[in-house]
């Protein structure tokens, strides 16, 4: 790990003031710290957000669930309000990594990292969430832009994420046994805007499976997806599975998610 200046401000204003030049925000640190230890990432200044109390918390109303950026995965999973409003979101959070990751990792850190196999991005895209920053509101459809890339500007701070409450939703993932990241994860939802199917783990970053959405829009059952496959072009191939394998697993995971959503 390279030498860096460490700061732990107590307010958003102080954090933003510290995030000048080559500075990085530290949320849960479950990805960034490991990358820095391996010297795959470096920064001159680390701005730890852990001391800013108002960046964490969960509020629920009749229309949406809003989760603070520094809310841990464990807190989302344990929230009775989230389990009642969007059970699929609570279950997703409860199956991220292992207990140590869930108790340290945060929603804001996960989405800002935009790992291609992270679970939360699929929830944002499938639920048509909105990311609130210190500067603006960003629709989930515009937030994830590439491999480890987002629409965030340098020094822009994620404050919270708002998830509209769907009629029904479910998330299923085929996980890598060691890391518990998604080899293929599919989040399916049906809400005011229709059916949305978001896929993580299969491509360079999260994406919507429009072919599956069209079929489920006509009939929201697992059988509606029989015989439908997505193109393997541009999907990931690695030691865990080929692009063709991942393409096939997208449909399988989507069928399982639909079955869960209607159970």
UniProtKB/TrEMBL annotation:
Pfam families: CO_deh_flav_C, FAD_binding_5
Record-annotated FAD-binding PCMH-type domain positions: 1-168
Classification via PROSITE patterns: FAD_PCMH (PS51387)
Keyword Flavoprotein: yes
UniProt keywords, alphabetically: FAD, Flavoprotein, Oxidoreductase
GO function terms (MF aspect): FAD binding; oxidoreductase activity
InterPro entries found in the cross-reference section: CO_DH_flav_C, CO_DH_flav_C_dom_sf, Diverse_Substr_Oxidored, FAD-bd_PCMH, FAD-bd_PCMH-like_sf, FAD-bd_PCMH_sub1, FAD-bd_PCMH_sub2, Mopterin_DH_FAD-bd
Signal peptide start and end residues: none
Protein name: Carbon monoxide dehydrogenase
């Amino acid at each position: 790990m390279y030498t860096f200046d460490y700061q732990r401000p107590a307010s958003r204003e102080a954090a933003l003031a510290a995030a000048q030049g080559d500075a990085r925000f530290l949320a849960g640190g479950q990805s960034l710290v490991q990358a820095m230890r391996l010297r795959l990432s470096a920064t001159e200044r680390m701005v730890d957000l852990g001391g800013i109390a108002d960046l964490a918390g969960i509020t629920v109303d009749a229309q949406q669930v809003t989760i603070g950026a520094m809310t841990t995965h464990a807190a989302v999973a344990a929230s009775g309000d989230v389990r009642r409003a969007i059970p699929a979101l609570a279950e997703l959070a409860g199956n991220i990594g292992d207990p140590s990751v869930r108790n340290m990792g945060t929603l804001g850190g996960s989405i800002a990292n935009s790992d291609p196999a992270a679970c939360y991005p699929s929830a944002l895209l499938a639920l048509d969430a909105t990311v609130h920053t210190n500067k603006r509101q960003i629709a989930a459809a515009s937030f994830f832009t590439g491999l480890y890339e987002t629409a965030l500007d340098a020094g822009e701070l994620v404050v919270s994420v708002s998830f509209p409450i769907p009629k029904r939703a479910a998330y299923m993932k085929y996980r890598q046994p060691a890391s518990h990241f998604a080899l293929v994860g599919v989040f399916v939802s049906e809400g005011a805007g229709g059916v949305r199917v978001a896929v993580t783990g299969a491509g360079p970053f999260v994406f919507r499976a429009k072919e599956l959405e069209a079929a489920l829009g006509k009939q929201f059952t697992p059988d509606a997806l029989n015989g439908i496959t997505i193109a393997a072009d541009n999907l990931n191939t690695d030691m865990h599975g080929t692009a063709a394998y991942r393409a096939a697993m997208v449909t399988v995971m989507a069928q399982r998610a639909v079955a869960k959503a209607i159970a």
